[in-house]
C-alpha cells in the first residue's frame, strides 16, 4: 500500500473529486480527514470508508480561521499529519460585468487564501514528517472560460503559489508541493451546475469531440488514481510542478475543423 500509516487531509471530500480521493487514500492504507460543510454527505463518506480510518471535520473555508481549526482537529485526533490535498473549491459563474471585489474575496478565500493558510498552519507537522501537499487546480488557471473569470483567476494564483512553495518549502523543510489541473470532470456538482443552466442530467452522454475526444469526459476516480502518485513517497523529490490532467493539450491546441 502506497500510503500505509499516512494521515491525509482532503478538503472538500464529501462529494466529487475529493470523495474519490479520500476513498483511494483509504484503499492505499491511509487514515483520512474528510472535510466539507454538509454533515449528512460527510457522514455518508465516513460510514463508507470506516469510522476507524476517518475523521469528519465540518468547516467553512471562506473563514480564514478555519485553517487553524482544521489542522488542530486533525493532529489532535490522529496524532500527526503527513499530507494535505487542497481540493475544495468555490466555482462561481462570473464575467467582467458580474465580478466585483466582494465576489473575488469570496472565491479567493476558498480557492487560494485558505489553502495557503492550511499549508502554513500545518508546516511544523509536514516538516517533521517530510510530508507533501497536492493542490487541485484547474485547466482554467491558464485563461478560463469567459463566464468563469473569478474562479479562473483564483486557480491561476494557486498555480503560482504551488511553484513558489514547491521550491521554498522543499529546500527549507523537505516538504514537496505540487499541483494537478484537472480538465472537465463528471462530478455531482457539475451535473447540478449544468441543471441550473437548463440542461438535462444526461448532457454528458453526447458531447462534441472538441470537448471530449474520448467520447466522454473524465471520471473523478481517474483523477484520484493520479493523486496517489503525487502524494506518495514514490514521487521522490519531485516538487513545484503543475500538471494538466485532460484528454487534449490546453496550450497550442488546434480545434478540429468540424468543431469550429
From TrEMBL:
Organism phylogeny: Bacteria, Pseudomonadati, Bacteroidota, Saprospiria, Saprospirales
Protein name in the entry: SDR family oxidoreductase
Organism: Membranihabitans marinus
Pfam family, one: adh_short_C2
Family that this chain belongs to: Belongs to the short-chain dehydrogenases/reductases (SDR) family.
InterPro entries: NAD(P)-bd_dom_sf (IPR036291), Sc_DH/Rdtase_CS (IPR020904), SDR_fam (IPR002347)
CDD domains: SDR_c
Protein origin, superkingdom: Bacteria
SUPFAM superfamilies found in the cross-reference section: NAD(P)-binding Rossmann-fold domains
Amino acid at each position: 500500500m502506497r500510503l500505509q500509516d499516512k494521515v491525509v487531509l482532503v478538503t472538500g471530500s464529501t462529494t466529487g473529486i475529493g470523495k474519490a480521493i479520500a476513498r483511494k487514500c483509504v484503499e492505499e492504507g491511509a487514515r483520512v480527514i474528510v472535510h466539507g460543510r454538509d454533515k449528512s454527505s460527510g457522514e455518508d463518506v465516513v460510514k463508507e470508508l470506516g469510522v476507524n480510518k476517518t475523521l469528519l471535520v465540518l468547516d467553512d473555508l471562506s473563514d480564514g480561521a478555519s485553517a487553524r481549526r482544521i489542522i488542530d482537529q486533525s493532529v489532535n485526533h490522529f496524532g500527526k499529519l503527513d499530507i494535505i490535498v487542497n481540493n475544495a473549491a468555490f466555482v462561481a459563474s462570473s464575467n467582467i460585468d458580474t465580478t466585483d471585489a466582494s465576489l473575488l474575496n469570496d472565491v479567493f478565500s476558498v480557492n487560494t487564501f485558505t489553502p495557503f493558510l492550511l499549508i502554513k498552519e500545518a508546516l511544523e507537522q509536514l516538516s517533521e514528517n517530510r510530508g507533501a501537499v497536492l493542490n487541485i487546480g484547474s485547466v482554467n488557471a491558464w485563461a478560463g472560460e469567459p463566464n468563469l473569470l473569478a474562479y479562473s483567476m483564483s486557480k491561476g494564483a494557486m498555480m503560482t503559489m504551488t511553484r513558489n512553495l514547491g521550491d521554498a518549502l522543499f529546500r527549507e523543510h523537505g516538504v514537496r508541493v505540487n499541483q494537478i489541473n484537472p480538465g472537465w470532470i463528471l462530478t455531482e456538482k457539475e451535473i447540478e451546475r449544468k441543471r441550473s443552466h437548463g440542461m438535462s442530467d444526461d448532457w454528458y452522454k453526447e458531447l462534441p469531440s472538441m470537448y471530449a475526444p474520448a467520447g466522454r469526459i473524465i471520471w473523478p476516480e481517474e483523477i484520484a488514481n493520479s493523486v496517489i502518485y503525487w502524494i506518495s513517497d514514490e514521487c521522490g523529490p519531485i516538487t513545484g510542478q503543475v500538471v494538466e490532467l485532460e484528454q487534449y493539450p490546453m496550450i497550442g491546441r488546434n480545434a478540429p475543423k468540424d468543431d469550429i
